[in-house]
């Protein structure tokens, strides 16, 4: 094994152990040294590859969104551009990689404040994909008079900000193992309301 291959293997081992730790306890509650020591990785080796806990966490965030995007972009045959298909693929991904669920939720809804900008960069492709899914939904709808596609996109972006704030409050005391399930359920419901309204049209 070459030195480069050994370095890659060592970094992957660190990230795997860290994903499990951050996936259980989140950024604030994690003890990185304990988790990596339990995995047989020395403190010296950790800081040979990463400068700090923050850098390890950001590597885990990158791994989460990189693998999620790889799955989403590779599932064209499952109608990923429809909302049911999109949420089904997301759910299947987090069932397969449960440690990523907490990292995903934390990065999207309540990132560590001092890492917010760097996390935003790492999930930019995911945000763009979300927007493309929403655009695909709009393509199949007849918009109200006076509402352009760009108006709808702007409203969608406002909706995302409001939804994130709502979830921070609503899921604050939810059990960690239920957070993502509740988040996805609320997101589906609120997107449906956003697209199709709250009132049932009355027949004349």
Automatic annotation (TrEMBL):
<keyword id="KW-0238">DNA-binding</keyword>
<dbReference type="InterPro" id="IPR036271">
    <property type="entry name" value="Tet_transcr_reg_TetR-rel_C_sf"/>
</dbReference>
<dbReference type="InterPro" id="IPR001647">
    <property type="entry name" value="HTH_TetR"/>
</dbReference>
<feature type="DNA-binding region" description="H-T-H motif">
    <location>
        <begin position="31"/>
        <end position="50"/>
    </location>
</feature>
<protein>
    <submittedName>
        <fullName>TetR/AcrR family transcriptional regulator</fullName>
    </submittedName>
</protein>
<dbReference type="Pfam" id="PF00440">
    <property type="entry name" value="TetR_N"/>
</dbReference>
<feature type="domain" description="HTH tetR-type">
    <location>
        <begin position="8"/>
        <end position="68"/>
    </location>
</feature>
<dbReference type="InterPro" id="IPR009057">
    <property type="entry name" value="Homeodomain-like_sf"/>
</dbReference>
<dbReference type="InterPro" id="IPR050109">
    <property type="entry name" value="HTH-type_TetR-like_transc_reg"/>
</dbReference>
């Amino acid at each position: 094994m070459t030195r480069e291959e050994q370095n890659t293997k060592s970094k992957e081992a660190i990230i795997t152990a860290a994903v499990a730790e951050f996936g259980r306890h989140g950024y604030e509650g994690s003890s990185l040294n304990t988790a990596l020591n339990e995995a047989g990785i020395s403190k010296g080796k950790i800081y040979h590859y990463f400068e700090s806990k923050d850098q390890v966490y950001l590597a885990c965030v990158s791994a989460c969104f990189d693998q999620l995007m790889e799955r989403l972009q590779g599932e064209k045959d499952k109608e990923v551009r429809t909302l049911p298909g999109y949420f089904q693929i997301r759910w299947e991904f987090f069932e397969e990689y449960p440690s990523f669920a907490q990292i995903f939720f934390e990065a999207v809804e309540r990132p560590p404040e001092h890492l917010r900008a760097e996390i935003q960069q790492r999930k930019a492709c995911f945000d763009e994909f979300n927007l493309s899914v929403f655009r695909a939904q709009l393509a199949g709808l007849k918009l109200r008079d006076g509402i352009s596609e760009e108006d709808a996109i702007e409203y969608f972006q406002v909706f995302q900000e409001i939804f994130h704030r709502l979830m921070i409050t609503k899921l604050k005391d939810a059990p960690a193992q239920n957070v993502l399930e509740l988040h996805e359920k609320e997101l589906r419901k609120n997107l449906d309301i956003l697209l199709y309204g709250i009132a049932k049209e009355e027949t004349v």
